[in-house]
Automatic annotation (TrEMBL):
Keywords on record: Electron transport, Membrane, Respiratory chain, Transit peptide, Transport
One Pfam family per UniProt: NDUS4
Keyword Membrane: yes
Superkingdom field: Bacteria
Any GO CC annotation of this UniProt entry: membrane
Name this protein carries in UniProt: ETC complex I subunit
Localization per Swiss-Prot or TrEMBL: Membrane
Lineage: Bacteria, Pseudomonadati, Pseudomonadota, Alphaproteobacteria, Hyphomicrobiales
Length: 101
């Protein structure tokens, strides 16, 4: 029952940074998921996969895990890399990737 503490990354479908400022504590799966043969549903008997706790800071999440004797692992957040690009770069003569249609 190892808990993972991390700050979620921005998804590709978002333009803003909503839901990326809080820290999340969730549990890693203990039991593998199984496919039900008749209907094809994926299920698991591990109820801890349904628990997801949110904290404002990393210290609060670590303190919670220590207070409840939960073994945990902290993943450091990665910095966002913004690459500048212009529409005119699509028509440059020295493109990195060749122009294809």
């Amino acid at each position: 029952m190892v808990a993972r503490i991390y700050r979620p990354a921005k998804t590709a479908m978002q333009s803003g940074k909503a839901k990326t400022q809080r820290w999340v504590l969730d549990f890693e799966p203990e039991v593998a998921k199984a496919v039900e043969p008749l209907m094809g549903y994926t299920s698991s008997s591990d109820m801890k996969q349904q628990v997801r706790l949110y904290f404002d800071t990393q210290e609060e999440a670590v303190a919670y895990a220590r207070r409840h004797n939960i073994p945990h692992r902290v993943e450091k957040p990665r910095n966002r890399v913004v690459r500048g690009a212009a529409y005119a770069d699509n028509f440059r003569f020295n493109r990195v990737a060749p122009w294809t249609h």
